[in-house]
Amino acid sequence: MAKLGKRAKAAREAFAGKENLSVDEALSLIKSNAKVKFDETVEIAMNLGVDPRHADQMVRGVVSLPNGTGKTVRVAVFARGAKADEAKAAGADIVGAEDLMETVQGGTIDFDRCIATPDMMPVVGRLGKVLGPRNLMPNPKVGTVTMDVAEAVKAAKGGQVQFKAEKNGVVHAGVGKVSFDADKLRENVLAFVDAVSKAKPSGAKGSYLKKISLTSTMGPGVTVSVESATGNVASA
Asked: How many helices (H) and strands (E) does the chain have?
């Protein structure tokens, strides 16, 4: 095992024995121990009582964080003609059709969000094996297959976060930067938890929100009280 550096060792000691904290306590701990030279992302992980292998237990959705993510999001749009022009005017970083498909097939994926007009889905569909595993495949359920490409681009650039349960029932996302004020981070965390709570699938039985953890990019994780993160709303 690699030897821990002084910073990592100090962080481990600061977090030792602390669990099931309130959101405010967890964020304070994370912010005070973020000592690296870059602005770390504050990340949330939620363990859910679902088995995503069953269609009626899949958890998927989108949420617009009230204070944004602090991250520059590169957006690609599959569109033609006037819709391509709308996407460019709205600030899309990459716009194309078959040419963009060929670029992606060639292994170049220089974007964080992918949007498509409905008529482009036969083209985009050929990229399922490439975009799917990266959670980049456009989907009408999260507003990334749409004729309103301008609004979709603005939402993606403005702090909209997509989430999807992995095969072990975990949902995770970045909810801001450690440089954010604690109040803004708390608002983002609560907004994300609320969105995941509302996305509870019909097939979920028993306890739905099992565990919530917060961490920074380079720091240890800390568990957060489900009650604190949900405003005392029942998690079952």
From this structure: 9, 9
pLDDT of res. 16: 58
Tell which residue, 145, 83, 138, has the closest CA to residue 114.
138
Q: What is the pLDDT of residue 234?
A: 38
Q: What spatial distance separates the first Cα and last Cα of the chain, rounded to whole Å?
A: 39
Q: Which DSSP helix (H) or strand (E) runs through 75?
A: strand 75-78
The residues, ordered by sequence, that sit 6+ positions from 124 with a Cβ below 8 Å of its Cβ are: 78, 101, 114, 116, 131, 137, 138
Does the pLDDT of residue 3 top 70, yes or no? Answer: no
Tens digits of residue pLDDT in 153-193: 999 999 899 999 998 999 999 999 999 999 999 999 999 99
Torsion of Cα atoms, 69 then 72 then 77 then 83, to 10°: 90
Hey, what are 102's tokens? 């060929």
> Which phi and psi angles does 64 have, rounded to 5°?
-95, 110
What is the distance between the alpha carbons of residues 156 and 158, in angstroms, rounded to a whole number? Answer: 5
> Which pLDDT score is estimated for 6?
63
